[in-house]
């Protein structure tokens, strides 16, 4: 059965909100899982690995779809909470070998190819890879954010439903929240308190849209409370909601040692570490189901970093999911349930943290080399594995 494959065409218009994946192209072939013959996917050994994935039902087992489960992995309602299949990202760029920039031909530069990763309800999955390897592009893909010269192919499911460009935009900031790596994500012209409180109203705005649709559908019947106009104020934030958002923001600011008065300051008045804490507060404000945390702890002291990771752990333990993107494998092994090892633009192994107890439990040569390179293993990166 054919699947909708999300594609961002190179050179597509770039909106002010950086919305990407503007074009959804019908593909005649379903997204396939990597096979054993694929060098980048030697970890994939499940019996169903070569079958098209429909994201409908999953039978709880130790291994399926090319990844090993952790004890916390749950298939709530029979599916993953978040699943990325066959993601490939590349950029159309001027050929640097050409002598003249103005006459240079375009060349296509692939960065991510055939990437597969899943997040179950109740777990933290850490994507571990070198800095600059393209992990942030994975985060942007899940959020539906790309540069206009990007070409993006693949399929994303959220809570068992296949997504397209429009639905990913609706999920962004409400059901899926991002803790970005860059400290430049905040609006430089808006006070940080107002920006953080805005995330608490994100989910409500989606509900308001549903209310307006129902009102439009029923206004000719006069039979419902919505049609009679009892919810005319649904599009406006009530004083009670504003007070609740302000109190939630105050609690989060206090937890992360942001002093009184921080909410009335602009981003340029804050240190880099303070901005990272504000960005984490933004992600925790709106009650999402999945948090994509892209290097959330640099710039934080040890105590605040531990506090942030404890909050992510608590968020996952409540039945939600976290995709933690990091280059710090030691951090990942402490906080995560499963590790997705990123190398050469793809995930080469997705396995439980417990399997890092011994290199014999790891499948891919790169993952085993990573194990040997850890400090407690004498940094033996050059050892034959």
Summarize the structure.
Helices cover 27% and strands 22% of the residues. The model is unreliable at 1-57 and 203-235 (pLDDT under 50). It has helices at residues 135-143, 165-171, 192-200, 202-218, 239-255, 272-285, 302-317, 329-335, 365-372, and strands spanning 4-7, 23-26, 63-64, 67-68, 82-94, 106-119, 123-128, 150-158, 161-162, 176-179, 290-294, 321-326, 338-343, 346-352.
| Major sheet characteristics | 6 strands, mixed
Order of helices and strands: EEEEEEEHEEHEHHHHEHEHEEH
End-to-end CA span:
41 Å
What is the mean pLDDT? Answer: 75
Helix tally equals 9
The parts where pLDDT drops under 50 for at least 5 residues are 1-57, 203-235
Strand content: 15-25%
What is the topology, as strand order, of the major beta sheet?
Answer: 10-11-12-7-13-14
Number of strands: 14
Describe the global form. Answer: globular
Radius of gyration: 22 Å
Secondary structural class: alpha/beta
Proportion of helical residues: 25-40%
Structural account:
It is a single chain. The chain has about 375 residues and is α/β, with parallel strands linked by helices. The chain is built from nine helices and 14 strands. It has a domain of about 220 residues. Helix 7 links the parallel strand 11 and strand 12. The strands form four sheets. The protein has a six-stranded mixed beta sheet with strand order 10-11-12-7-13-14, with helices on both faces. It has a four-stranded antiparallel beta sheet with strand order 6-5-8-9, with helices on one face. It has a two-stranded antiparallel ribbon with strand order 1-2. About 25% of the residues lie in helices and about 20% in strands.
